[in-house]
Design goal:
Helices cover about 70% and strands about 0% of the residues. The protein is built from five helices and no strands.
């Protein structure tokens, strides 16, 4: 869907004063990068909760609880990422509508409910979000912002760990 920067002209770049020693012209693209990840993570959270609410079939209770736990992990990452945008003097653009418009994830299929199939869709979403965040780590480093890269690295670890938990339900033998 969206690329590595927020698209469209519906948002104005607003910055606040900060004593962080990263020049404003360098912070602006960083905030855009952070907001792209924020959109994808917010969408991932909502798709994970959707899966939690709608899963049916084998191992229901285990998968139902797994999705709820994973959603909580993503919610924590959303807060960390959004606060980094604010720390850089930017605006964290994290409403549901903003996320829907700018997420790098595909929409969740509305006809998938069986536990094995829904696990596969959620695994794809976590894998894609992980790929996006790893690209964002590189971009933050290109802007000489090791702190933002570190925030993204922390999120990457969570996404990879979550994907491991999901894939463990899909693997037999």
């Amino acid at each position: 869907m969206a690329s590595s920067a927020l698209k469209g002209t519906s948002h104005a770049t607003h910055t606040f004063n900060t004593r962080i020693d990263i020049p404003a012209e360098q912070r602006e693209p960083l905030v855009e990068l952070i907001n792209q990840q924020l959109a994808t993570l917010t969408d991932l959270y909502s798709q994970t909760k959707y899966s939690h609410w709608n899963v049916r079939g084998d191992n229901f209770i285990a998968v139902h609880k797994l999705f709820d736990e994973l959603a909580e992990e993503v919610e924590g990452a959303i807060d960390t990422v959004a606060e980094r945008a604010s720390a850089l003097g930017g605006v964290a653009r994290g409403t549901t509508r903003m996320a829907a418009e700018h997420s790098a994830l595909e929409e969740f299929p509305d006809d998938v409910f069986g536990s094995h199939d829904i696990l596969g869709v959620v695994a794809d979403r976590f894998a894609h979000a992980g790929k996006e965040i790893r690209a964002a780590i590189e971009q933050a480093e290109d802007h000489q912002d090791k702190t933002t890269a570190d925030v993204f690295t922390e999120v990457s670890r969570m996404l990879d760990r979550s994907l491991y938990f999901i894939e463990a339900h899909l693997t037999s033998k």
